[in-house]
Design brief:
This protein has three helices and seven strands. The chain is α+β, with helices and mostly antiparallel strands. The protein has one domain: Peptide Deformylase (Alpha-Beta Complex), CATH 3.90.45.10. A five-stranded antiparallel sheet has the order 1-2-3-6-7. Strands 4-5 form a two-stranded antiparallel ribbon. The longest helix is centred in the last third of the chain and has 19 residues. The termini are far apart. It binds nickel (II) ion (NI). Nickel (II) ion (NI) binds next to helix 2.
């Protein structure tokens, strides 16, 4: 068990494209466990490897309701193969953009294909909150953040706030 530090914008690793995982080996299984530990510790409902500075295509999620048994999900090399036509607006936040929440519009249904920890290919249909979370986390693997879907005014305000904080921290 290892909780790893979570990167915060404007860290440039959050804007890079992550590499496909070639083999699900012990290193990947350890990474997945560390990511789950880090996500639960935060706490959050989703985490992508670039958020801990590992540029690999893997995300973890758990959308089990509070107080119920955990339902950890690990998606390796995930790809959305179908987007539903209906859109939904939900409030999103991100562990790499802490303490802010904004409404974002996304398709309310997706089909996702991925490799699981056994190395098997899985295809899953998701809707509602799970569909939002899948899209948000997979975006991270391509250097895309949810604030990219906001109006330029709102997005610039967020970016400026974190740029200033980073400069202050750097002295
Ligand atoms: Ni995020």
């Amino acid at each position: 068990m290892a909780v790893r530090p979570i990167l915060v914008i404007p860290d440039t690793r959050l804007r890079a494209v992550a590499d496909p995982i070639v083999e699900v080996d012990e290193e990947i299984r350890t990474l997945a466990q560390d990511m789950l530990d880090t996500m639960y510790d935060a706490p959050g409902i989703g985490l992508a490897a670039p958020q801990i500075g590992v540029m690999k295509r893997i995300v973890v999620m758990d959308l089990a309701p509070e107080g119920e048994a955990p339902e950890p999900m690990v998606l390796i090399n995930p790809e959305i193969t179908h987007f539903g036509e209906q859109m939904q607006v939900t409030e999103e936040g991100c562990l790499s953009i802490p303490e802010l929440y904004y409404e974002v519009e996304r398709p309310n249904e997706v089909t996702v294909s991925y490799t699981d920890l056994n190395g098997d290919t899985v295809t899953k249909q998701a809707e509602g909150k799970l569909a939002v979370c899948i899209q948000h986390e997979i975006d991270h693997l391509d250097g895309v953040l949810y604030i990219d879907y906001l109006s330029r005014l709102k997005r610039d305000r967020v970016i400026k706030k974190f740029d200033k904080a980073a400069k202050r921290a750097a002295g």
